[in-house]
Specification:
This protein is of the alpha+beta class. It has a domain at 347-483 and 526-555: 2-Layer Sandwich (Nucleotidyltransferase, domain 5), CATH 3.30.420.40. It is 42% helix and 19% strand. The longest helix has 30 residues, at 6-35. Residues 302-498 form the Carbohydrate kinase FGGY C-terminal domain. It comes from Labedella gwakjiensis. Keywords: Carbohydrate metabolism, Kinase, Transferase, Xylose metabolism.
Length: 556
């Protein structure tokens, strides 16, 4: 009998064919990287700066990634990041990406076909005529703009949240801050980085919609509201004209400048990155979240969970009235979106997981972060549907929807509560969704229908846990795609890749459907009736217990 049976020969031949195909694919990928047939997205998140490189012929596939951890600072009672940290972090993230490309593919990254920058939305970066920063960067996390927010909401007839750039600007005017007469340019973090890379003072419409209200007809700042604002500021700040200080607005798909020599040196001080790369409009993390989850069409929405947590729902029609809990922003293409934004997301949950990791280490059985999260999340599945009588508040900073100017994280229980690890972990995850659920309840009362809510962010990496609890919190199906953990940086890379498709007249929605998500896999969690009822019971206690948080802010 032959030592090589027909079946063995066939297996060997199939293996050889697979190996040859893999070699051809690897060679093609190296060629694409060398020729710049790629798109790069960089996002400055609250705790990480991440870079993501994708191939133009398959935007759903990530070629390489890079990242850098950073943290905001609380200086003079303001949450801020220094501009030095911005550039050090961007350089570190890009260098990490270059290293990953070389390690995976054996080629040095010198250019890309398109580049895009995104970052945390809102906030306040003000510059003078010499392009010097006038006051330290004020991030979205600051809640010192209450008077401005109230006045502008009445003036405009739409909700102007505390974190919006126009609220920060108007509060500076109201407070007669000395820098106001010197303002020549106000932008967001993404707009600032893009400006330094290209020299262009522009902003994607999605990010711009978190600076100032957008007119859906023009997909630009609402001219009537601009005129109203300029009229009321004629006496307080006579030299301040919004159109002159706000960045120009661009929809997704328009070229927004090219990487200059100075910009290339800022991003890559080694000199390896070549200038001349076209950039798409800079966007906010809300917009990249919508793109990363294919949630840019009416009756779809997405939840992005990180340091903050927010939900975006694309509207079929205007809301009946303005609501303090809701922002009206836009997709990167300029379509209206209702946004429920909560300043506090998964940071407190992460701190508790870190505490348990330290216990395991002290006990002589250390575990890595992924293992700790998965173990504790799986434990949460065994908890009572209502959390067993426990309450978890994740507020590290102020939370406008909850009526909190400052935050005090807390775990509260009654003497007869069922204090188990499973209930503790379930309520920690519930706590991430608590304030979000209060805002989503307002949308539901407006009759806004959601066919599917897409979720992304590291919180959803453990399959079937946070996704299931979110479905209970909003009583709607929640889908997680295989690209969900890549999140905003991948979404920004997709927006950069859209530059080419847009020149052919393809809409953003069609590009996502046909070129990015075609055949994509997703896991959908339908709301479980017992979980829905349990979370509703939890939310009732949670809302009543916010008085505890207010008392803690006052007392501590």
């Amino acid at each position: 009998m032959s030592a090589t049976t027909p079946d063995t020969a066939a297996l060997r031949e199939a293996a050889a064919l697979r190996e040859a195909a893999a070699l051809r694919e690897a060679a093609a990928l190296r060629e694409a990287i060398g020729q710049g047939s790629t798109s790069l997205g960089i996002e400055l998140g609250s705790t990480r700066i991440k870079a993501c490189l994708i191939a133009d012929d398959d935007p759903s596939t990530v070629i390489a990634t890079g990242s850098h951890d950073w943290e905001n600072a609380f200086v003079d009672r303001m949450w801020t990041y220094s501009l030095e940290d911005v550039w050090a972090g961007l350089q570190a993230a890009f260098a990490d990406l270059v290293s990953d490309v070389e390690s995976r593919h054996g080629v040095r990254l010198e250019t890309v076909g398109a580049l895009g920058v995104s970052a945390m939305m809102h906030g306040y970066l003000a510059f003078d005529e010499k392009d010097e920063l006038l006051v330290p960067f004020r991030t979205w996390r600051n809640t010192t703009t209450g008077r401005a927010s109230d006045e502008l909401s009445v003036l405009f007839g739409v909700n102007i949240p505390l974190r919006w750039s126009i609220a920060h600007l108007h509060q500076a005017v109201l407070d007669h801050e000395p820098h106001v007469p010197d303002i020549r340019f106000v932008t967001t973090l993404a707009g600032y980085v893009h400006w330094r890379l290209t020299g262009e003072k522009v902003l994607g419409v999605g990010d711009a919609s978190g600076m100032f209200p957008i007119d859906p007809a023009t997909r630009d700042y609402d001219e009537e509201l601009v005129a109203r604002y300029d009229r009321i500021e004629a006496s307080e700040a006579p030299g301040l004209h919004l159109r002159e200080v706000l960045p120009r607005v661009l929809p997704a798909g328009e070229e927004a400048g090219r990487l200059s020599e100075d910009g290339a040196a800022l991003l890559d001080p080694t000199g390896g990155l070549r200038p001349g790369i076209p950039l798409c409009p800079p966007e906010g993390d809300a917009g990249t979240g919508m793109v990363a989850t294919n949630a840019v069409s009416p009756r779809t929405g997405n939840v992005s969970a990180g340091t903050s947590i927010f939900a975006m729902v694309v509207l079929e029609r205007p809301l009946a009235q303005a609501h303090d809990e809701l922002d009206i922003v836009t997709t990167p293409a300029g379509d209206p979106v209702a946004m429920v934004h909560c300043n506090n997301g998964a940071s407190e949950l992460g701190a508790w997981v870190g505490l348990f990791r330290r216990f395991a280490e002290a006990a002589g059985t250390p575990v890595d972060a992924d293992t700790a999260f998965e173990t504790l999340f799986r434990e949460a599945l065994d908890g009572d549907a209502d959390g067993g009588g426990l309450l978890a508040y994740n507020q590290l900073s102020g939370e406008p929807i909850a009526g909190l100017d400052e935050g005090r994280p807390a775990v509260v229980r009654t003497p007869d509560s069922r204090f188990t690890l499973a209930n503790f972990m379930r309520t920690q995850v519930y706590g991430v969704f608590g304030t979000l659920a209060l805002g989503m309840r307002v949308l539901a009362n407006e009759g806004v229908a959601i066919d599917t809510m897409f979720a992304h962010g590291g919180l959803f990496r453990t399959a079937g846990v946070a996704q299931r609890f979110l479905a209970a919190a909003i009583d709607a199906p929640v889908a997680v795609t295989r690209t969900a953990s890549e999140g905003g940086p991948w979404g920004m890379a997709v927006l950069a890749s859209y530059l080419r498709a847009a020149t052919d007249g393809v809409s953003l929605g069609d590009h996502l459907r046909d070129a990015v998500f075609a055949g994509g896999e997703s896991d959908v969690a339908e709301p479980d009736a017992a979980d829905v009822a349990g979370f509703a019971s939890y939310l009732t206690r949670y809302e009543a217990g916010l008085a505890i948080e207010r008392a803690a802010v006052s007392a501590i």
